[in-house]
Structures are given as C-alpha cells and as structure tokens.
## 1
Amino acid sequence: MSAVNIWERMLNIDRRWIFLGIGIVSIVPFFINFGLPVTTTMEVESIFDYVNELGPDNAIFISFDFAPGTQAENMPMAVGVMRHAFHNDVPVFMTANYPLHHGMMLAAMEYVFNPTTVGFYQEVFFDDWRDLREAGVTGKYELIEAWENQGNQLPDGAMGWVFEGRDYAALGYAPVFNLVILGMTVSIETQYPVDAHGNSTGEMPMLREHKSLREIDLALTSSGSGACVWWVTYAREKIGLPIAFGLTAVMATDYFPYLQSGQVIGQMGGLRGAAEYEVLLTENGITPTTDKAFTGMDVQSAAHILIILLIIMGNIAFFAGGFHKKTLLKGGS
C-alpha cells in the first residue's frame, strides 16, 4: 500500500469508527478513575471561602433555576454548596423559578439524603421531631442530643443529622418568580405559607430566625438560563444580598461582567466549575471524596483529547498526502 493511499484512507475513515472511539473514551472513565488534576480558580474559591465562613447563625438560599437538559452541569454545583452548608450547620432555603426546576430541587435532596450516596446526610422529617420542637428544643446541638437520647442513632457513613425546618426548608416553586424574590425581601413566609412537602413555614424555627432575604447571607442561583439575573436585580440591587452564580459553560463568559463589577461574589462555570468546588470540599475534609462533576471532567477531558488527536491526524494526512495542492488547483490558484 502506497503512502498516498494511507493518507487518503485516514482522511476517508468511516465516521462510525469516530463515534465508536468517542463512545469508548466516554464510558471508560466511569469504570477506571483517571484522576486528572483539576486546579481551582479564584471565582470558585471565592464562593467556597464565603460559605466556609458562615455558621449556624447564618443562612443561605439555593435557587434551582435549571432543567434536566443542563442537570449534568448545574446539579453538582447546587449539591456541592448544599453539602458545604450542612457541614457548617448553615440553614439552607431551597427554591425553584419554574415548575420543571422544582423537580431538580427534589432530585438534589434525594441524592444528598440517600444512604447509598458516599457522604450522605441523614434527614429527619418535620413531623418526626414535632415533640422536641413543641418542647422548645430548636438549637442544633441540643436538638441532636435530645434526638439521640430518644434512641435514634446516626447511620454508618452519614456525615450528620439534617432536620427539616431547622437545617433546611424546601420551599420549591412559586409563580412569577421575579416578583417572589421581590416579595421575599419583605417576608419569606408570605410568599411561601407552606413548603414543598405541605409543612407550615410559620412553624419552622429557621423562618423565625430568618424572616426575609434581609436576614439571608448568600443566594446561589444554579442556572441554565438568564433568569439568574433576577437575583441580582431584585435582591442584590434592592437589599444588597450577596449573590453567587452557578452557570452552564456556554453562559459563563457572558456573565463575567457581573463578577468583575462586584455584583456577584463568585461564579462556577460549567462542569469544570462544579468539579473545582468538589475538589475544594474534599481537600478541606468536608466531603470524603469528589463526586459526579470530578468524574465527568475525566469523561470530558478524554473525549476532548481524542477529538484533538483526530484533528491533528487529519491535518497531517491532508498536508502529507498532498491534498492541499489538489485543493489549491481546484480553486484555480
């Protein structure tokens, strides 16, 4: 076989082989951990450092502003910040700006509270600790002590107890969400009389301590659309609430001006941003291991490397085989 034929065969490779190659390099990292390094950036570190300074007297909002189409990027961002807050005993309010996004909020909770998840948190439902609440036991540490004195034991592998209504409130979706944000600057309970599970928010200790967005210390919007700007417009500019963005990769560059102007404290961009947050959580002993975003970076990197190699090989074949000369002749040059 002549050299020219080799180059020609390389240029005319059946695209099905390329699809097969992409499929293989995308599947293998799920079974073999490459552990490719992920370095952290300042815009992600700033969110981590901010949350890390918060404690039981503070509170944060996580707004699930994404649909299943961007779940691979946005979900790990929200889950990472949620775990970070639970580790520091920071109460978490969770909302969604569209009905479809409400399901993403529930999926995140199911993942974090699932005993099969490495580093899960053990959830205690609102009604299950009603007797302690009615007895006036609402402080986190005294609540844990009283709960365990009733014979409850933290399951093996659990990172800690999370009490519904004390450590988190799943508020969910409410219509015309931009006006909901505006309304929450006055009263959260007015906008959400009940949570996503039908519990009265007025009975929740965390809403007695944090009545409006004015008593909230940070809002993270994990977003797949421009709706993330609502938090800047109606909360940051109106009452000075610190905002953090968790955005898809294609959105990230468009929203850097908000970061540069100081309107947001930090930004996670795409799967890479979520993986960076997971690395920070693991390095600081907050989670026992990295999670889906870090694994996803191995998949993404392997696919990108293969594509780059194919492009290089194609260019080598194009020029080494003299096909560039034929192209010039056909073009009349």
Note: Residues 292-320 form the longest helix (29 residues).
## 2
Amino acid sequence: MDRRERILKAALKLFNAHGFDNTPTARISKEAGVATGTLFNYFDTKEQLINSLYLYCKDSLIRQITQGIDKEKTLRSKLKRIYMNYLGWGLHNTDEFLFFQQFSNSPYIGEVTRKEGVSKLSSLLELITEGMENEIIKNSNQDYINAVIVGIFNSSMHYFIENPTLAKDEEFLEISFNFLWDSIKK
C-alpha cells in the first residue's frame, strides 16, 4: 500500500470514528505512519482529502457492483446482480459504506465531487432509464425511482450488517431483493 492509500485508509477510519471536524490532519498522518507534511504533498487541504476519499470509496463501490452484470440477460437479473454485489461490497467494506452514510450529504463533499461521483454511476442509471422506456420499470420520475433503489439498498445493508447470518441465507437474500424489485417493476 503506497503512502497516499495509507493516508486515505487512515482518514476513512478516523473520519468514521470522530467526524471531520474532530479529526486533525496530524492525527491522520500519525495513523497513516507518515509525517504531516507528507499528507499535504498528496492533499492540499483536509477538504481535498475528504473529497478524494469520497471518490476513492466510490471507485471501490463501482468496481464491485458492476462485476458480472454484462453476463446477465434481463434487467431484473442485472439489477439483482448489482444488489447482491452491493451487499457483498458493504459487508466486506463496512468502513467505506459507513463513510458514505455519514458524508454523502455533508457540506464537506463539494458539488464537483458529487457530480463526478454520479457520473461514475451513469451506466447503472441508464439501466433504469432503459427499464422505464421498455415499460419494465414504473414510468415515474427517475430521480425518485433512483432514491427508492438507493434507500432499499442502504436499508438492506444496515440490516445485514446488524444480522450477518441472514446475509448468507440465499432464500432471505432473494426475499430482500424482491422487496426492491416489486417496488419498481411495472
């Protein structure tokens, strides 16, 4: 792991534990095992660090949730693959998931960073558009449908973090996905 990644991992851990304001850069540097000046060689400000961390976590998420969707034939099976991949990602990257929960709507995440994060999801958002156009998904306001999907994804993740044995129960996973699918299918 290079210095930049060590700094990001340390910031992730400390921001989750103490919040943004209560995490000084000196503490992040110490946790990462680098000099404070080294942190500023990679990130000009603490704000730049948290925005870089947001995109770092978003990249991790996108890599995981898109695995194997090109092998799926139907919209339902693609969405199910994304859902199952998301749960797998969150259960193995709980710190990253909790970071998103804490900071996704934070004023510390800049508008440019948010837009870049959304653009990374464009191919997934196109699936929903395609589903609406082909009358597979309810033809409603797409932002609302996206919010419903994200809400169910996140609620499911919280539930499975609290109940990890159910995250291994194939029948229960199918039921949980069906709650999502039934809420958006036409």
Note: The domain at 1-44 is CATH 1.10.10.60 (Arc Repressor Mutant, subunit A).
## 3
Amino acid sequence: RAPDRYANDEDVLEALLPLTDVMGTGHHAAVSAGVEAGDTAVVVGDGAVGLCGVLAAQRLGAERVVAMDHHEDRLDIAREFGATDVISARGDEAIEEAHERTAGGANHVLECVGAESSMETAAAVARPGGTIGYVGVPLGVESTGFLGTMFGKNVSLRGGVAPVRGYIDELVSDVLQGTLDPSPIFTETVDLDGVPEGYRMMDEREAVKVMVKLD
C-alpha cells in the first residue's frame, strides 16, 4: 500500500500500477536470468513485459541491454527504459545482429513472449554457459528444437510464473524514491465505457497497455 500522501498523486499512482503485474514479471525475467551490475542482457519481446524487462535489467545495473523485436514505437520506449541497443528484426536476421552486437551472444537473456520462435531466438542468442530467464506464457510451443540448442551450449533455463508480491516492496520503494517509473507502458487511456476499445487496441498492437481511468 502506498502512503496516504500519494493518494492524489496521479504520476506516482500511474508508476505504481504496473508493479501489480507486468513490472514484477519483467523483473522476474531479469532476476531469473541472473542479471547483475556490469552484465550484458538481451531482452526478447517488446510487449509490456519485455519493456519492463529492459527497465528491470537497467535497474539491476546491466551495462548493456539489447532489446529485440520489430515494433519501432515500442522500441522507442525500450530506449527510454535504458536499452543501449535495439534490434528491429526477427528470425535469423535478428539473431545474427545480436551476435554481432554482443560478440557472440549474451550471458543473460530475458524471454518475454512465450512463442516457439521467441524461445528459439532466446536459445540462439544466449552465450555458451548463459542463462535464459523465461516468463513468456507458453503459446503454441509444439517443437522443442530449441532445447537441443540449449543443451549443446550448456544454457540454463529459469523462470515461470512471476512471484510479483515477493518483489513488490523493493519496487514500490524505488517508485516512491523516484528512481523507477514503468508508466510509459500505458500508451492509451480510456474511461470505463472505452474498455472494449482498449482491449481491441491491445489485441491489434495499437497500444502496449491501456489505462482505465474512472470519473
């Protein structure tokens, strides 16, 4: 619970709201991947969780954070959140560019999508002996070919459902100190009547996250 003195501070409340879900999940990806000060991290996915993963990696002190996906407007938010590099590509092209930018792969990879293709990308861009923090909900993952890639490179896989409440105290503290603000993920705002339109915008990738404000 935020102190009462912030009850009418909309900027603080908007920064706190993502902590209940996507910020905690992105943070779990970074923690699971073992990101620490001075590290290089690659974030696969530019949805709300991936963007918060960028922010989390930066918060944990990563020296270099590479954001990967193909939506330019979202990659702009990734830059705002501390991404030092963005790769606006997918598939083999994205993997090749990631290898070039990380001198052969990253020790810490955040998988924030859950699709088969994103898991393949995460496995491919991980450096031998690296770790993938996996928080993307599995969707349509029918092939496990990426496991062979991981096995061959001794890549570890950690993650799962984010224990958001376990992270909430430290994240709230950072927000209240003004050192953490994930609110830019709210790219559209609607009233209660606009909720269906908000879902449509997110479904069609016209918005990252939609905030509902009640009169």
Note: The radius of gyration is 17 Å.
## 4
Amino acid sequence: MSPHAIDRRCFLKTSSAAAAGLTLAASGLTTARAEDAQQLFQISLAEWSLHRTLFDGKLDHLDFAKTAKEDFGISAVEYVNQFFKDKGRDTNYLNEMKKRAEDHGVKNLLIMIDGEGRLGDPDDGKRKEAVENHHQWVEAAKLLGCHSIRVNAASEGTYDEQVQRAADGLRQLSQFAKPYGLNVIVENHGGLSSNGKWLAKVIQTVGLDNCGTLPDFGNFRLDGDNWYDRYQGVTELMPHAKAVSAKSHDFDRQGNETHTDYRKMMKIVLDA
C-alpha cells in the first residue's frame, strides 16, 4: 500500500469508477445491470490480493468468498490454486467452496494456475506433462462454475521458438478445456509473456476461440528493471482478452493509482 493514507470508502468508490479489478465475461464485457450501481464493469477480487493474509494463516481459503463480499462488497472472485493446491481433485472440498460462495451470493469466475510446469517447455515430454497437470484445474473450474482458468506461457529458446512451443502447449490445453466450456487465458507474467506483441502472436498461433489473454495492467516486467510499456501491452492484448487484471499497488490521497493512469488505461479497454 501507499505511504499515503486514503479513506477506504474513497478507494472503493474510485476503484469502482475506474473499474479496478474488472471482469469480462467469456463472450465479452460483463456490464453491470441497470439496478446495480452505475458501473461500466463488474468488479471481482483476485485471491492473490490477500496472499499475505492467507499465507500467514489469518484467513482460511474457504472463507475467501465470504471475505470478498462482507469486507469489500465484491460479489465475484478469482481463486489461486496455490491456496488449495492439494484439493484440485477433492470434489467434497470443491463443493464446499462452491456452497460457501453461493451462500454469500458470490460468483466464482476463474482459477489462476501456477506451479504445474511450463506449457511452452522445449522438451516435448515435459510440455505434455505440464498440459496434463493442468487438466485437474479445468475440471475443478467446471465444478466451481468458473468461465476460465488463468495459465502462464513460460517457455525457453529464441523468440520464434517460444511462440511455437507456448502455442503448442496452450492449444493442447484449450482443446481439452473446450468440451468443459472453459476458456484458457494467459496473463502477461514475466519473460516474453510480458511482451504484448509476443503474447498476442502466441494466441493468434493457437487459433482457438477459447484461448485468450488476461491483460494485467501492472505485470509488464520483462526482466530485472526492464519493463514493457503497459499501455502498449494492454492495447496489443485486448483484442484477445476475456478478462482484465486491473492491478493496483500504490495510491495518492485521492485514491488514484500512482503507477497506472487509469483514465488512459480504461480508454484502451473500452476502445478495444
């Protein structure tokens, strides 16, 4: 958080108006209904936003949906597999997650997947294994009522080799996810995946309508202190976007994010 203290009500009002933490439905933008607050987008909460609280044991993963609704007034959530890594095939646990979300009127939107291998691994066998490791999360997402899983496009090799390798792994996984009605969406998450042009080319190479992007406003670090232009990156990724991660870290006293010009960024989203 910023060293500048801001009023929570001011932050929520500002972030809602700017669509901080917004979600797009599988078929496009999910707009708020007329009877809801006049917001252009529905806002969801990514579980990673509370990762310190979860890792410290101050919040149980099963209570995440309740916390999103009761503490933040948010009615849609995005899970992170790290917080229930050994429960991917535990239908009793997954059904409990679903029940608790439903009990609080919270929609389950997606699961963010990490630590299951590189979908663009240069070794064909390891790439296939990574794809298969993701299968359980497709099935879990289906049970929870999600529309997508978020994955990474980590690879190795030359620029073009990584395009082909990542596209191959993503294509295999997207083909598996298709009968489940699930999207496979890729976040810019370091390395070449934080190069908007590269990731857009990967998705184009996959060529499947259930494989898209999850542009993250604040995650365009290529390596070290080398950053890709976030506005250019989002512009390049929006044609393939099925959700947007409106990441925010620091705020001024008026509740404005200090690293991203949200007016400029949201215009890019709207114009896409």
Note: Confidence is low (pLDDT under 50) at residues 1-21, 24-37.
